[in-house]
Amino acid sequence: MTDAYFMTQALKEARKAFEEDEIPVGAIVVVQEKIIARGHNMVERLNDPTAHAEIIALTSAFNALGSKYLPEATLYVTLEPCLMCAGAIYWSKLGRIVYGADDEKNGYKKTTTTNWPFHPKTELVRGVLQDECAQLMKDFFLNKR
Fold first, then answer.
1. Residues known to be catalytic
2. Which tens digits make up the pLDDT trace of 10-24?
């Protein structure tokens, strides 16, 4: 199984958010090539600004494993995590983060600039299925304008 395969699974979650009129971000958590958790944005549904796809997926993964740390896990998310999600990712001690599209407006890089916001042992992979992830966001906001 490849990063592209798992990102297609995260994109399925993002499409669920799109269909629910949520900003279309999806996330999955994978351990030993098995999806153990899924999430998509639920900010509007839950009336909760912290209900981002990453937070939903991480909480589900913690519950599935009975652990607050995920050093053997990979988080696949369709959009660059925001600073809030970067903090949650830091504290979860994730082994890897793989994301699709950059988020110039709200991504962690906007705020952290040169500082690494993740755990020192966390590996980061950017740009997996970037075009597909970005297009879903463009389509969503095109419908809003």
1. 54
2. 999 999 999 999 999
